[in-house]
Amino acid sequence: MNDPASTIDPPRTVSQAQRPAAVLWDFDGTLADTEPLWIKAEFALVESLGATWSYEHAEYMVGNSLLDSGAYILQVIGRPDLEPAWVVDRLIEQVVAELDEQPIPWRPGALELLQTLNDARIPCALVSASYRVILDAVLRRLPYGRFTESVAGDEVSLGKPDPEPYLLAAERLGVRARDCVVIEDSANGAASGNASGALVLAVETYVHVPRVTRRVHRDTLVGLGVDDLAGLLGQANATA
């Protein structure tokens, strides 16, 4: 006769019950500390046009779409004769060159968490306002397969804070956004993740991210693992 204990399923832990279907990562400021690269490119471009720039203006643009950022730059420096797309192209050229030639400044704990999720076979997607050429420059520097999917800012009709980027990422992965954890560092990005229905893990870097429902805040990704994300998702869904 079989031991009854061997035929009874063990109790399900929170991590088993609420394991994220996928983790959807922002790029700039979340996976890598690229904001200084963008700011450097902004100062260089604006100065080449004979105007002046400030860190306050640069901070204002964090989390915005690239075209919105390009339009803002032209508004600030009074150059209606130029197109936002032209500004974006110039900024991208410099940032891609930096990503190709210099060490990428990964955020603390980001690569370790990404590896942990890969080991646990939890799919990850990179979801960014940056254009495809930027994401491809980053993906070239990572071991193959770290991200199952990626969504770039020039591949959506509406960028963050609209939910489209994260909804598209979830669709490409074949999961529900509500069952995912989004990792973000900006207010617009966090709003996009929450609007998709996902739980947002906000790790502030340069700008304040408001506290709202289905959003948790952490100072760093260092030390976070699958059980931590599962516990946060389980708590959020239990109170929904």
TrEMBL record:
<dbReference type="InterPro" id="IPR023198">
    <property type="entry name" value="PGP-like_dom2"/>
</dbReference>
<protein>
    <submittedName>
        <fullName>HAD family phosphatase</fullName>
    </submittedName>
</protein>
<dbReference type="InterPro" id="IPR006439">
    <property type="entry name" value="HAD-SF_hydro_IA"/>
</dbReference>
<dbReference type="InterPro" id="IPR023214">
    <property type="entry name" value="HAD_sf"/>
</dbReference>
<dbReference type="Pfam" id="PF00702">
    <property type="entry name" value="Hydrolase"/>
</dbReference>
<dbReference type="InterPro" id="IPR036412">
    <property type="entry name" value="HAD-like_sf"/>
</dbReference>
